[in-house]
Design brief:
By secondary structure, this protein is of the alpha/beta class. The chain has helices spanning 19-31, 45-58, 74-83, 94-97, 99-108, 119-135, 149-166, 186-198, 201-207, 243-256, 278-293, 298-308, 318-322, 354-371, 376-380, 393-402; strands at 9-14, 38-42, 66-69, 84-89, 111-114, 139-141, 170-181, 229-231, 235-239, 268-275, 325-334, 343-350, 383-384, 404-410. It binds NADP nicotinamide-adenine-dinucleotide phosphate. Keywords: Membrane, Transmembrane, Transmembrane helix. This is Similar to Putative trans-acting enoyl reductase Rv2449c acc. no. O53176.
Length: 411
């Protein structure tokens, strides 16, 4: 990777005092080389100092973590971006706080990873910052947490399996959340509400198109798919709220890889959730619609905040998280000239809870950007890219070792 001037740090976690930020630092401590020069950044010196003391006491053999005081002023973000090779940001809602952070990283050629799920904001960031990031050789990977790293990598694994074993592309991928136990943090809840306060209906509509983030437009035609179906491999399936955000990243990967030719020119993709029977399928379909509609209206946002907000900086307790898990399953159909094209099946199984999974994906993406020169992202050199452009056997091995198993096979 081209490095211009030496930087004080290899990696900085910005938002390190928050719920996801703390889990991210734990992943840095457990899953990066002990010689990594890193810092935790945020606006509260006291909170940062306490965390740094704890980390340095528990991990005496690592290069000590340092603290970096930063707020969201232009000057502060410039100082932050120019002091590190890579920045992980967990300061959200990103649509409210994140634009200046990405802009500074793009301008200073600083690699960047985050865990936003706010695809209207990512759509805007691509328009504003992709070119600068590419020119300055900053690899920027948004949506690299629960949304949308596991399924972007899972889709890549399916396509690679079919390419390697059958020598052709893929015509369709269907994913389902097979099993999920978890709860949302205050930051995630607030973000869901805030997106609808900051993006106009027109922006929401534009950025929801399946190919909104794809560098190749128009993307392949997506036929209508019933929101409730039965799949012979995945079971009874119904709508899932993350389909739009995950799909937008998958189609950016689709377009970044040989202009859509690697995945397949007629590639289609959809994500559902598995349910046990048809009645649940209908009930969940209605619940998903309500989850999408409520944040659109200010009085309903107010009511939702009053009734359901977990509290700022709060999230599932350590004990609760130990019982949380997630597994997705997916099926890809080979683009073969046959009445019965062959298929591949993937399990994307996290033995850790969704928030630790988010932290793991961001930290291993950062590791890959800093240390692996054999990825598509490294070849492209910079720009707003996707988790799948970091795919490598080493990344899959490190994720597997830490709790995310992605296994694809022909069925
Ligand atoms: N989509 C996914 O897969 C996924 C998964 C996990 C998290 N997330 C996203 O990650 C974000 C963080 O969630 P969370 O639950 O960790 O939130 P949180 O606990 O509220 O943490 C927010 C962090 O941002 C910092 N911050 C807020 N305003 C700031 C400002 N003006 N200047 C500097 N720092 C500021 C906070 O600092 P203080 O401690 O000083 O207040 C804190 O460190 C949310 O947007 C959430 O949606 C997404």
């Amino acid at each position: 990777m081209t490095e211009r001037r030496p930087r004080k740090f290899d990696l900085v976690v910005f938002g390190a005092t928050g719920y996801t930020g703390k889990l991210t630092s734990e992943q840095v401590l457990q899953g990066t080389p002990s010689t990594l020069k890193w810092a935790i950044a945020g606006r509260s010196p006291q909170k940062l100092e306490l965390l740094a003391q704890d980390y340095n006491r528990r991990f005496p053999d690592r290069t000590p973590v340092q603290t970096f005081i930063a707020d969201l002023t232009e000057f502060s973000l410039e100082q932050l971006a120019s002091s590190t090779r890579l920045l992980i940001s967990t300061v959200g809602p990103y649509i409210k706080y994140g634009t200046g952070v990405i802009e500074a990283c793009a301008v200073y050629g600083t690699h960047y990873v985050d865990c936003t799920g706010e695809f209207p904001w990512v759509y805007d960031m691509i328009k504003r910052c992709h070119k600068t990031a590419k020119n300055r050789k900053a690899i920027i990977i948004p949506q690299c947490g629960f949304e949308s790293a596991p399924l972007d990598l899972g889709t890549y694994a399916l396509v690679k399996c079919i390419r390697d074993e059958l020598g052709c592309g893929v015509s369709d991928v269907t994913f389902a959340v097979h099993d999920l136990k978890g709860n949302v943090s205050g930051g995630t809840f607030e973000t869901t509400m805030t997106v609808f306060e900051h993006a106009t209906l027109q922006e929401l509509h534009e950025s929801s198109a399946f190919d909104a983030l794809s560098p190749v437009k128009p993307g392949p035609e997506q036929p209508f798919r019933s929101p409730v179906i039965r799949d012979e491999h995945l079971g009874i399936l119904t709508s899932w709220v993350n389909n739009t955000g995950d799909r937008s990243i998958v189609f950016r990967s689709w377009g970044l890889m040989d202009e859509g030719n690697y995945y397949g020119k007629d590639f289609t993709w959809k994500e559902y959730q598995r349910v046990s029977n048809w009645v649940s399928a209908i009930i969940w379909f209605i619940i998903m619609k309500v989850i999408i509609i409520v944040p659109l209206f200010a009085p309903l946002r107010w009511l939702a905040r009053k009734l359901f907000h977990p509290g700022e900086g709060q999230g599932p307790t350590d004990e609760a998280r130990r019982g949380h898990r997630v597994e997705w399953r997916g099926v890809a159909i080979a683009d073969e000239d046959s009445e019965n094209p062959r298929k591949a099946f993937v399990t994307v199984q996290s033995t850790i809870d969704p928030y630790s999974l988010t932290a793991l994906c961001m930290v291993q993406a950062a590791n890959s950007i800093l240390h692996n020169t054999d990825t598509l992202a490294a070849q492209l050199g910079g720009g707003i890219l996707t988790p799948a452009t970091l795919a490598s056997p080493e990344l899959f091995r490190l994720l597997d070792r830490a709790g995310l198993k992605i296994e694809a096979k022909i069925i």
